[in-house]
What does this fold into?
Amino acid sequence: MYKYFWLLLLPLLANADDTLTPQNAETQYELGMRYARGIKVQRDDIRAKQLLESAAKQDHSKAIYALGWLYYSGRGVKVDNHLAVELFRRAATNDLPEAQYMLGIMYGQGKGITKDSSLSLYWIKQAAKKGHTAAQKIVNKLFGTTTIHHQVNP
It folds into this structure.
């Protein structure tokens, strides 16, 4: 019953003193994403990064992925593709399809990591299996199906 009570507090937390950081990883992630997107608060990439880092330290997969995006895109931080890859890898190994897809793309492009088509395909297939639409489109284009039969070990 009270499982999602903290969601009701997000608007209050978002307008609270910036020194207040919630301790719950999910709350940190949600609030960080509000700052990153400018939802009911002024967009603030620095504050978003702080909150996402706090949640990532607690192994919150979506926060780890979002933090990777900040480093990939250079929002509030200097672009760092190597760090983005490591963050995407960390979230991908926690079975987050978005991170698996991005890790596959990074391997395919050789951004922040040595280009590796086999690992690119492996991670894109993993994301496709979990229903990631863009990954499924790539698999469908390559193989004519979204059904995955062949596995490549990372």
